[in-house]
Amino acid sequence: MPTETDEEIKQYEGFKNVTLGNVIRARTTEPPNYLSKTDQELFMKYHIPALELQTGLHELLGHGSGKLFQKDKDGKLNFDCETVLHLETSQKVASWYEEGENYHSVFGSVSSPYEECRAECVGLYLCTVPDVLR
């Protein structure tokens, strides 16, 4: 679980991510026996690049996207509340995290599973976007 410091760094600076390619490659040395011979060949050819792509999208864009709208200790917002619009309602953003609040403190025990679901959805969805596959 990220610490407050990790979250602050991610919010304002960005974050690093590491993928363990040797672990991905070591997991599957034989094709699944439930596939036809033709599909086994396709599976062995594409499963590692597909998994690496989906994992990268999950980690980098799924976990790395989005900005938490916050109010700091001086009462200043980290976004322009006069121009930023809610993506679904097209209305001005009317809520944000107050000073001292963060994603984990507000959502509690469901914050980590919810974040994983969000990242997984982003990764899976983006795997279907032609520009991502180029």
TrEMBL record:
GO terms for cellular component: cytoplasm. Pfam families: Peptidase_M49 (PF03571). The keyword Metal-binding applies. One of its GO terms (molecular function) is dipeptidyl-peptidase activity. InterPro entries: Peptidase_M49. Transmembrane segments: none annotated. Keywords: Hydrolase, Metal-binding. PANTHER family: DIPEPTIDYL PEPTIDASE 3, DIPEPTIDYL PEPTIDASE III-RELATED. This is Dipeptidyl peptidase 3.
